[in-house]
Specification:
Blueprint lengths: L2 H7 L25 E2 L9 E6 L10 E3 L2 E5 L4 E6 L5 E6 L9 E3 L2 E5 L4 E6 L5 E6 L9 E3 L2 E5 L4 E6 L5 E6 L9 E3 L2 E5 L4 E5 L5 E5 L10 E3 L2 E5 L4 E6 L5 E6 L9 E3 L2 E5 L4 E6 L5 E6 L9 E3 L2 E5 L4 E6 L5 E6 L9 E3 L2 E5 L4 E6 L25 H21 L3
Parallel strand pairs: 1-27
Antiparallel strand pairs: 2-33, 3-4, 4-5, 5-6, 7-8, 8-9, 9-10, 11-12, 12-13, 13-14, 15-16, 16-17, 17-18, 19-20, 20-21, 21-22, 23-24, 24-25, 25-26, 27-28, 28-29, 29-30, 31-32, 32-33
């Protein structure tokens, strides 16, 4: 007779909230689409800001299970509560961190200018392993099927075992690799300063390569069989993912170091000519452009019909994805070369003013963050909501037994 009442008041015995589309790596996913199904903020309210010891330049937060993971040029990698900005833990590397973390299976992977790729326990910040390359690691790792794909300024692209850091294969390019590899259908797509490569994800063997007229910092996005990337030759390119043949290119009036986002048949990116562009993904025809006050190195993030992007004019912009009309701007204290991440109603981004910003408001309840001294979480049982119910039942039964004893039954 007590069970219905107990079920009604027991925490966790209610309709589950819709799952949050977490931003777990560079440009959201392994294809680097830059598109999230999470709600994005329609106003520029400050949720929180967190001060680091140096610029947050090309790094940007990855947000998973209510925790924002981000590195800084102060050599420190941070885990912050995504709702409050409070620090959960930090890890000090041997040099600046400009790489964006990939988070998979409770492990955080990122590169550092101390030549290392690091794997940390996501809950405690303890070192799991590190792999040392022969030069600085600007590249942001991509983790797919237990393999970490990452580039280095030693001119190599690496495939590492995600569990222990053991090298599976490496592929030698002829220049620095700053970009983050995209991995789609068993193929790794990555740019070095001189070529775009398609490599077999299992073996590292080259499938094809393409050489634009100038160097590349932009990372590729791969959507519907097309590889999109920018070049310092002022172009945004679209290549056939199967053979590397050029489908189209769009010419701007400046370097295109920004990595493109692709959503609903539109490609979004920034240029050093101060403009944000939206192009038809199939034809390369311009849909709209929006002029900011300075060059754009930041990449675009797309969520809820809004494009979010930073500019070297110190501002973060929210633009209507269909029309390019400004929805809001947010002023930081310095250049914004960091990249935007969107999760659970909030835009996360860094600035050269040493701050990490969270703009918006949390839209769905998220997990409670662990403290630095919290023990590792146990394996989640098949029915995790039964424990509160069991505790309530035990409490009620105890009260009944006590009452029975008092009346002498």
């Amino acid at each position: 007779m007590f069970l219905p009442a107990i079920l009604a008041c027991t925490p966790g015995i209610e309709a589950q909230q819709p799952a949050v589309d977490w931003w777990s790596m560079f440009h959201h996913d392994s294809a680097h689409t830059g598109y999230s199904t999470s709600a994005g903020p329609l106003t520029n309210q400050t949720l929180w800001k967190f001060k680091t010891g140096n610029s947050v330049e090309y790094s940007a937060p990855s947000v998973v299970n209510g925790v924002a993971f981000v590195g800084s040029q102060d050599r420190t990698f941070y885990a912050l509560d995504a709702a409050t900005g409070s620090k959960i833990w930090s890890f000090v590397a041997g040099n600046s961190i400009k790489s964006i973390a990939a988070v998979a299976n409770d492990v955080v992977y990122f590169g550092s200018l101390d030549n290392n790729v690091y794997a940390l326990n996501a809950k405690a910040g303890s070192l799991k392993w590190n792999y040392t390359t022969d030069n600085q690691v600007y590249s942001s790792p991509n983790v797919v099927d237990g393999v970490v794909y990452v580039g280095s300024n030693d001119h190599y692209i690496y495939a590492l075992n995600a569990e222990d850091g053991r090298k599976i294969w490496s592929f030698q390019t002829s220049n620095y690799v700053w970009s983050s590899p995209a991995v789609v259908n068993g193929v790794v797509y990555v740019t070095s300063w001189d070529y775009v490569y398609a490599l077999d994800a299992s073996t590292g063997n080259r499938i094809w390569s393409f050489k634009p007229k100038d160097s590349m910092y932009s990372s590729p996005a791969v959507v519907d069989g097309v590889v999109y990337f920018g070049s310092n030759d002022h172009n945004l390119y679209a290549l056939n993912a199967d053979n590397g043949d050029k489908i189209w290119n769009f010419t701007t009036n400046g370097y295109v170091t920004s990595s493109p986002a692709v959503a609903d048949g539109i490609v979004y990116f920034g240029s050093d000519d101060h403009n944000v562009y939206a192009l038809n993904a199939e034809t390369g025809q311009k849909v709209w452009s929006y002029k900011t006050g300075d060059a754009i190195d930041s990449y675009a993030a797309v969520a809820s019909g809004v494009v979010y992007i930073g500019s070297k004019d110190d501002y973060v912009y929210a633009l209507d994805a269909k029309t390019g009309e400004k929805i809001w701007t947010y002023k930081t204290g310095a250049d914004v070369e960091s990249f935007t991440s969107v999760a659970n109603g909030v835009v996360y981004i860094g600035s050269n003013d040493y701050y990490i910003y969270a703009i918006g408001a949390i839209t769905a309840q998220q997990p409670t963050s662990l403290s630095p001294t919290s023990p590792p979480s146990p394996t989640v049982p098949e029915f995790p909501t039964l424990m509160p119910l069991i505790l309530v039942i035990i409490s009620v039964l105890s009260l009944i037994v006590i009452k029975i004893r008092k009346i002498g039954l």
